[in-house]
Each structure stands twice: as structure tokens, then as C-alpha cells.
Amino acid sequence: MAFNKKSRITSKKTDITQWYTDIITNSDLFEYGPVKGTMVLEPDGLALWENIKKILNKEFKKIKIDNVSFPLLIPESMLNKEKEHVEGFSPEVLKVTQVGNKKIKDALIIRPTSETLFCDYFSKKINSKTQLPMKYNQWANVMRWENNTRPFLRNSEFFWQEGHTCHATKTEAKETVWQVIDIYKDLIENHLGMALYCGEKSPAEKFAGAVKTIGIESLMPDGQALQIATSHYLGQNFSQPFKIQFQEERGSSFVEQTSWGISTRIIGGLIMAHSDDKGLIIPPNIAPYKVYVSNINPENKEVAQFVETIKEEIGSISFFEDTSNKGFGFKIMNFEMKGVPVGLFVGKREFEKKEILVVNRLSGEKKLVKKDSLVLLINKTLTSIQTDLKKSQQLFLNEHLVPAANLSQLIENISDGRAGIVCFCTSKKCEANIKKKYGFCSRVVNQRAKSGKCIFCNENSLFEAIVARSY
């Protein structure tokens, strides 16, 4: 049960960082691990992640992607085969250099990602065009050492999904990049109820080793951008050094590759986007429990029997049952903290009238209803919560994603907790300058309708960027 740590939540408007910490430490989703930046997913947290997995696995199957599992350790010599890739990850890499008292000649890397593992596998398995496309996905944990950690949002060890595909043509590979983006969009918008923006990453911000990276991001309540999902066109950047080739009539050719993924960071974004000063708010489509059932007078046998008939009535709708002997005030607070979409509360007074108190977690609205109308009201409430969360988030994004005609306007927007839409040249030099000088960067880049001047360096540009501070 919640509230064994801290029963008061710091106001979101007063201190969003402390608010987030208060929410997650009371949420029953996780516990801190023994090593900095690691975490234990508790039953509710794991159930939330498993629901995300179920949705994605179903969609991946539709485009013929199979799940596999790869090792945790990568020989350092293998990681070094793709220069840009290893340079991009080297600051975050953890190495195993010794077993007992014996030094390991070729150090073992705890995987920061699995491109090299998949490529080694593909090089052994692929030799004919008839084997293509080869499309795999794995659910795994990875390690990228972080100095400044925040549970879910920035962990050293986190759980994720990473897909890897090989194709005979560029066209097929690029189609897959966007197929996966569409799957992610559906998850984020229609299940997680979050508003998003999508586009290509700049050369400085793309995945290390990719030709192109398409990013999906959301704007958090403090105005900072959170990268939620990415899909990469790798081209032949890995297939050439790993010699992943297939035979065809004109000879051998290197495969075209993609990789793509989301992580448990998405849960941090979900918490940050929806929750309030009372606790979690979890969208019904993804919630571990859709209903919170609580007997206010558990010592009363007649009330207890009535609650049993209510549980039978709601049937297959997933529910959490509060069996504690705490008072009504505690039970309401615990329901709010856990973020279960709908609360059902029954005590002596409700039992005598054969009614159930139904509480909407999002609006706080309370209704008394007879048992034969209960399921209809639950389903109606779940639908309205899901719809209202999505609408609220889209409204927030529309209000906080604003054009900036010049640098001073952009700085003002970002200082006010918004993100700017600006003309940007996309050069690595310009990106490095703005990050160093102002502490923000381009998040996604899209083609402009007409040429303009980069607001940072005044060079001609056909690109428009969303610029913000980021997690």
C-alpha cells in the first residue's frame, strides 16, 4: 500500500522536481536499486510496462516482426567495428575487465544497445535474398552510465524494446522506419493519452551510426522536451563493417538496416504529463487496474458480501481491492495516489441503499449508482477519462509550442516554459554553439515551406526545428 513513505505531495506548480520525486516514491511503481541509476520495478510498475509490451507486440506481429533475445555482454573489439557508433556511446559504457583475479584480454561491454550483437548474428545467418527482410525485436535491459539520474526519466540501467531489421532495398528499410513510427504514435496518443511531435533529428542529435533518425517527443509540464521513441535508418553503416551480405543475380550486396526502440522512460513521461498533486493519473487504456474497489466497513459481514457481488458484477474489468482496515479518508487518498481511473467505495450507508459510490480519478466527480447500472457507468467513465487526458495534453502542446521569429523571442519562450519553432540551419557547429551558450538544442527538424535564415547563425536554411531544453 502507498503512504508508508510520505503522505504529502509537493505542489506541481511550486517545485515540479520535488513533486515528481514525491509522486514516484509513493506510487507503488518502483523502488530504488542498490546501484545508482538502477531501479526495481514493483508489481504495479511491471504491470504498466507489460501492458505497453502487449500493445506493441500485437502491432509488431502485424508487420511480421518476431521477438528474440540476445546476450548482455559485447566483446569490446566487436563494438569498435562501427567507429561513429562506439564514439557516441563511449562515455556511457561500462566494461567487465576481470573475472576473479584474471584479467580479460578483450574487455566485455555491458550492452548500451545491441546493434553490434544483432549485426554479428545477421552476418552469420544472412546469405540469400530469399531470407530478406529479416525483422526481429527484443525486450531487454541495457546499461548507459548516467551521472545525474531520475527514476524512469534518466536511469543508468533501464528496460526497453529494440528492433532491428535487414532489407534488400533502401525503399523497404525506409518504409519500415515509418511503419514503426506509426505504431509508436498510436501507442503514445491513443493508449498513453500523450501529445507528441515528430520529425527527423539533426546531424548532431541523430543516433550514433545512423544515416537518419526519426524522433517522437512530448513536451513536459516544465517546458522540457522528453524523447519518447526513435526509429533509425542505418543504411549500410553497420552491414559493411560486419559484412552482412546477400547473394543475387548480379553478385553480392550489403543489406539495408533499421533499428528502433522505446524504453521505461515512457513511464516517466506518462507520470509527468498526467499526474496531479494528489498522485498518479494513469490512462485507462494502459492502467494495471481500471477500477479500485474498497469496503469502507470491512468488519461488517453484510457490506463484505455486497462487495463480493460487486466484484462479480464488474466481471473481466481489472480491479485493485483495498482490503485494509483504514478509514475512508485514507482509502480515498490511496486510490488517488495509485492513479486507478475509477474508484468504487461501499460502506454501511451505501449498502443500506444498495448503492455504490463511483469516483472519477481525473475529475474527482462522485456518483451514487445502483449495481445494475454500475458496469455501464464504469465503461462510460473510463472512455471519458481516456478522451479527456488526450484532449488536455494536445491543448497543452498547442499552447506551449510556439513560433519564434528571432533569438531573443526564442530565449523568452523557453524561459517561460515553452518550446520554440524556428528556422535552423541544422549544422553541427551551430548546434554545438547553441547548446553550449544557451543550454537548449533542436529536438526534431522538418522541411520548411520556403527558405529562411537560421536564427542562430543567419545562414540560409530550408529547415524548421523545434528547439527546447530537454531531459
Helical residue percent band: 25-40%
Count of strand segments: 23
- The fraction of residues assigned to DSSP E strands is 25-35%
Query: Count of DSSP helices?
Result: 13
CATH architecture of the largest domain: 2-Layer Sandwich
As laid out across the biggest beta sheet, the strand order is 3-7-8-14-11-10-9
- Cα distance spanning the termini: 30 Å
Indicate the CATH topology of the largest domain. Answer: BirA Bifunctional Protein, domain 2
Report the biggest beta sheet as strand number plus sense, adding barrel if it closes. 7 strands, mixed
Name of the CATH homologous superfamily of the largest domain: Bira Bifunctional Protein, Domain 2
Overall mean pLDDT stands at 94
- Poorly predicted spans: 1-6
The rounded Rg comes to 25 Å
CATH class of the largest domain: Alpha Beta
What are the salient characteristics of this protein?
3 domains; 23 strands; alpha+beta; 34% helix; seven-stranded mixed β-sheet; Rossmann fold; globular; Translation Initiation Factor IF3; BirA Bifunctional Protein, domain 2; 13 helices; five-stranded mixed β-sheet; 471 residues
Structure explained in plain terms:
The protein is of the alpha+beta class and 471 residues long. The chain folds into 3 domains: 16-69 and 119-191 and 220-274, Bira Bifunctional Protein, Domain 2 (BirA Bifunctional Protein, domain 2); 291-384, Rossmann fold, CATH 3.40.50.800; 400-468, C-terminal domain of ProRS (Translation Initiation Factor IF3). The chain is 34% helix and 30% strand. It contains 13 helices and 23 strands. The strands form 6 sheets. A 7-stranded mixed beta sheet has the order 3-7-8-14-11-10-9, with helices on both faces. It has a 5-stranded mixed beta sheet with strand order 16-15-17-18-19, sandwiched between helices. Strands 20-21-23-22 form a 4-stranded mixed beta sheet. It is globular and about 80 Å long. The model is unreliable at 1-6 (pLDDT under 50).
